[in-house]
Amino acid sequence: MKQIRKIMLFMILGTAMLFASCEDENVIQNSILEIDKTEIKAPVEGAKINIKVTSNVAWTISSKQGWAVPEITNGEGTREVEINITENLYRDERKDILTLATVDGTQTKTIEIVQETAQKPDENYAYKLPVVFHVIYRDAKNEKQNLREGYLKEVLSDVNKIWKEAAPHLNVEFVMATETPNGVTMAEPGVHRVQWNIDKIDYKRFMGYTEAAPKRYRDLLWDQNRYVNICLYNFSDPDITGVTTLPYTIAPDALDGLEKLPNNIAPTELPISYCVSVNSLYAYTKPGNNLESTNFVSTIAHELGHYLGLRHVFGEDANMKTDYNEDSDFCKDTPTYNRKKYLKELSKYTLAHPKFTQEDVNKWILRTNSITGEQFTSNNIMDYYWTLRNKFTEEQAKRMQYVLLHSPFVPGPKIRTAKQKIVSKRNFKMPVRHAICQ
Hey, which family's this protein in (predicted)? Predict the structure, then answer.
């Protein structure tokens, strides 16, 4: 009998230990995942914000959109994680979701991040305009078509230096775009490479200069209200270095020399390729040599002036003919001259002096004001060769500032009436003006 009791006692103890063991296992298997924030409100300029993760197991953390970047993608146990929220270059309110999950899949937590829009702009507002270069090429190995990686970042940096020195109070900076229209982080910031089975493109057809631009070209462009689109391709006309669509205003806003739209429309309603086009045949001509009549950096700096509403400083009639002696750029502080007459004299001189020297450059950067007859040095970014191309005037800066504050299809916050904010279908013929540059 005693033997039986011992056996029963051992069985009871064994069962109790088994249950205790199971309870211990249950405690270990119950994963814990807690966070100290479920919502983050971030400023437009970006921020670094810490979140505390409390857990007893391994876990992962990821961002849906990619602009709220955790310092790690996985961790274990309890720790703080720094979230780097990048600057909102696109100025509209945006949202991202951080997802934390235990590796066993039993626990998930989310944090909603809302990044505010920019404050109401005024004349002192500092603009950062996201730029996307659409590099159109046929031969991936041809660097005059498919520009080398990293080069365009250097170019835009040089453009910013020119603009900063030319108009230090304008508060404009061009920055490489960091995300696609779908919110995906760009592997190569600011560069969108497109391979087409074509060597050269007719810029007039691409831009919609003479008729509506083909849908293929228009569809290439990203939302003009969020991006400055610069298209790089080999022009079929090698004498043209760049072409730019001049901006618009929305009634009742008006600026001399710009077309006025009766109402606001979405970029998808545009019948033209609203962008900057630059001839990539000249992509590797850079500043530093005064004996070069043009270079890629100054060409882009010049085209961006057109993009923000500037005209050429020399005389141009309504048909862009340059045998013109009147001031036509709507800026009284830019002296004008007859470009056709200047080129005729320059052509004669270069035939007699085929090897251009620095002394020759110094001679031909001088112009004669076609209104006053006075001589002046050409230093305006909106002139052509030969020129120093390193200045904007005060009136030019004010003109660009007006475009930044009011024009559609230019990134950044705007000053708008309630009516101007309403986006409608286009039920009117689109007026178009381009600036074509040699």
Answer: Belongs to the peptidase M43B family.
Residue 193: which of 142, 154, 240 has the closest Cα? 142
Residue 290, helix vs strand vs coil: coil
Predicted pLDDT of residue 203: 94
Q: What is the pLDDT of residues 190-220, one digit of tens each?
A: 999 999 999 999 999 999 877 778 889 999 9
Q: Which secondary structure element, helix H or strand E, spans residue 191, and what is its range?
A: strand 191-195
For helices 296-307 and 151-166, what crossing angle results, to 10°?
60
Q: What is the pLDDT of residues 379-415, one digit of tens each?
A: 999 998 889 889 999 999 999 999 999 999 999 999 9
Name the domain count of the chain.
2
Which CATH number does the domain housing residue 247 bear?
3.40.390
Q: For residue 9, what are its two tokens? A: 């006692």
What digits encode the pLDDT tens for the residues 252-270?
Answer: 999 999 999 999 999 999 9
256 and 165: one domain?
A: yes
CB atoms within 10 A of CB 376: 15
Q: What amino acid occupies position 185?
A: T
- Residues 33/59, Cβ–Cβ less than 8 Å: yes
Domain that holds residue 106: 33-115
User: Does some domain include residue 375?
Assistant: no
State how far the Cα of 378 lies from the Cα of 336, in Å rounded to an integer: 10
Residue 383 lies in a domain: no
Reported pTM? 0.85
Gap between the Cα atoms of 69 and 62, Å rounded: 8
Residues 300 and 426 in one domain: yes
> Per the domain annotation, does 13 fall within a domain?
no
